[in-house]
Write a structure and sequence with these properties.
single chain; 2 domains; mainly alpha
Length: 110
């Protein structure tokens, strides 16, 4: 968290903070700093890790390159969209029963 380092300066007065040297802040000050950072930087995101087949990853990377996007961005969009579909279907079994039919009118991407 490089951005939060500058917020932890020694200029914070130690008054009412247990007499510490000013190097540590109270929880309320840290929470306020986090809220300011969140407003500046937008919504904070959490990292997840998952394993996929190598061929699937290569296909995702190719698709991301064609779209001029990063792999993480493509994966995020797919995951969020898929989760919305799962919530609507209310179960994985029901979700997997319905498949999107490929359109015959559009040429296949190379």
């Amino acid at each position: 968290m490089v951005a939060s380092v500058s917020l932890l300066s020694t200029s914070h007065p130690p008054v009412g903070h247990g007499g510490d040297s000013g190097l540590r802040h109270c929880v309320c000050c840290l929470l306020r700093s986090r809220d300011v950072l969140k407003q500046i930087m937008g919504e904070w995101k959490a990292q997840i890790s998952l394993r996929v087949r190598q061929a699937f990853r290569a296909e995702l990377e190719d698709f991301a390159a064609r779209e001029r996007r990063k792999l993480g961005n493509v994966a995020e969009v797919i995951l969020e969209w898929g989760f919305e579909q799962l919530k609507a279907a209310r179960s994985i079994d029901r979700l997997l029963k319905y498949k999107i039919r490929p359109s015959t009118g559009l040429p296949k991407a190379k």
